[in-house]
Amino acid sequence: MLVELNKVVEVVRSRSRGYRAERELVHILWRLGFAVMRAPASGARMRKAEYPDVVAIMKGKVAVFEVKSRAKLSGLYVESEQIKKLLDFAERAGGIPYIAVKIPHREWRFIKVMKRIDEESKTYKVSKEDIEKAPGIGGVLADLGLMKTLSEYLKESSS
To answer: Would you name the residues annotated as active-site residues?
Structure first.
């Protein structure tokens, strides 16, 4: 009985942490000037939903996010169905799909999802190293063409 209760408490904590991370990301993106929305059923086990956790739009550029929160820096697995839905939504919206990772006391990290998942795969793995080397919010802005990278700026200024 105690083991079952501990599992329930952990699930509640995990969902609460995820909800807080989604809201934090929404506030960050809003302050940066994006029109941003958190999906109403985000975090619910709603299988029919075909949308990501967060959608952000600025100047016609679209970013879509599956938000993950971790207690500490470690690799993570995302259900392949979540990734398929993220990719489908991004394709329909003409946006760029990301897994947004929040770890306490660290900057947000954004992993661009580039590949389709094969039908047999149950999960999409993001390694600890992938999270560590992933860009912060500046990388998202650069991907969307809303901010120049240092190398782009230097290339333009030397021309």
So the answer is: 42
